């Protein structure tokens, strides 16, 4: 079975737990997830099956959409509600809707984030959460991420209370930490803050409405109808430009031939493109790093 299983991840499981469970349910070894979700977080988790594991990185690298909640007045070690309290400062002023909207506007666009200590980013060969569990705090590399849209999901005109919370929708690039975004919101408002809720509502082109739960998957396994809910491998690379090729060229592409770019209808300014033959993705090619007049295979998908 090759394709993408659009799983709705439940709370209480790691992404790896989900992969392990699906391997057992489907009796398959080649299963991989496409971007870690913390155990407390629910939402869209595309699972790649069989040959589709070759495109897992492309699904991971697409933009994401989340619904999150920030609680202002309290920060934690993990930047979410699972951590220990680090700082408390009761909110003693009332913020207007326009002030909250101004914070969201300030964080929209390209911003710089420092990954939280409790994250899977590697530094010197170890994941940050491994250092954090030893009680160590080390220097972390900052990264630029893009927040395409931040929408306030609260119709109040005034926001107050010792612990002030509001929900928002974020459309963002890969590598964005919504936990850190919540902390940054608090910093702009002048208070410690943490993320008190998070749900991923879209990953690339896959949305909540397309997803299935483990309970639904179990029924399909029992009825031998899993194929009906597995999306084509091509779903995971639908954001890449495509080139339809003939039989002769298809043979060369399957064999991994390096090709001359000007001999192809190569999309202008594209660094990568997918070769299709008979409506099937054969390979992902990229511009040769040293000879830009050539294109070379990055992933052979069908042989």
Plain-language structure description:
Responsible for synthesis of pseudouridine from uracil-55 in the psi GC loop of transfer RNAs. This is tRNA pseudouridine synthase B. Belongs to the pseudouridine synthase TruB family. Type 1 subfamily. It catalyses: uridine(55) in tRNA = pseudouridine(55) in tRNA. Keywords: Isomerase, tRNA processing. It is a single chain. The chain is of the alpha+beta class. It has three domains: 3-62 and 204-236, Pseudouridine synthase, CATH 3.30.2350; 64-203, Pseudouridine synthase, CATH 3.30.2350; 240-300, Roll (Archaeosine Trna-guanine Transglycosylase, Chain: A, domain 4), CATH 2.30.130. It contains seven helices and 20 strands. The chain has helices at residues 15-26, 56-60, 97-106, 128-133, 178-189, 214-223, 247-254, and strands at residues 3-9, 31-33, 42-49, 64-72, 74-76, 85-88, 95-96, 109-113, 122-123, 126-127, 143-152, 158-159, 164-172, 193-203, 206-207, 242-244, 259-260, 272-277, 280-287, 294-300. Strands 1, 2, 3, 4, 8, 11, 13, 14 and 15 form a nine-stranded mixed sheet that branches. It has a five-stranded mixed sheet with strand order 16-18-19-20-17, covered by helices on one side. Strand 18 and strand 19 form a beta hairpin. It is globular. The model has no long low-confidence stretch (mean pLDDT 92).
């Amino acid at each position: 079975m090759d394709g993408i299983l659009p799983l709705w991840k439940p709370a209480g499981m790691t992404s790896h737990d989900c992969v392990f469970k699906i391997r057992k349910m489907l009796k398959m070894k080649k299963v991989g997830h496409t971007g870690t979700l913390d155990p407390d977080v629910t939402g869209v988790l595309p699972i790649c099956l069989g040959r589709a594991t070759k495109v897992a990185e492309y699904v991971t690298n697409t933009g994401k959409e989340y619904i999150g909640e920030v609680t202002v007045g309290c920060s934690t070690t993990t930047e979410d509600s699972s951590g220990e309290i680090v700082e408390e400062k009761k909110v003693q002023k009332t913020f207007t809707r326009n002030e909250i909207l101004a914070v969201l506007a300030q964080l929209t666009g390209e911003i710089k984030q420092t990954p939280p200590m409790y994250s899977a980013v590697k530094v010197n060969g170890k994941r940050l959460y491994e250092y954090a569990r030893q009680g160590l705090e080390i220097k972390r590399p900052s990264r630029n991420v893009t927040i395409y849209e931040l929408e306030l999901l609260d119709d109040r005109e005034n926001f107050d209370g010792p612990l002030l919370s509001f929900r928002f929708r974020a459309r963002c690039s890969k590598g964005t930490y919504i936990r850190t975004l919540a902390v940054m919101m608090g910093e702009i408002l002048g208070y410690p803050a943490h993320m008190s809720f998070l749900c991923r509502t879209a990953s690339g082109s896959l949305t909540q409405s397309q997803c299935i739960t483990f309970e639904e998957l179990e029924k399909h396994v029992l009825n031998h109808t899993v194929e009906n809910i597995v999306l084509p491998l091509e779903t995971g690379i639908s954001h890449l430009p495509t080139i339809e090729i003939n039989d002769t060229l298809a043979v060369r592409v399957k064999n991994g031939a390096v090709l001359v770019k000007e001999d192809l209808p190569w999309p202008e300014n594209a660094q990568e493109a997918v070769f299709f033959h008979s409506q099937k993705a054969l390979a992902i090619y990229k511009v040769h790093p040293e000879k830009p007049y050539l294109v070379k295979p990055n992933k052979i998908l069908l042989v």
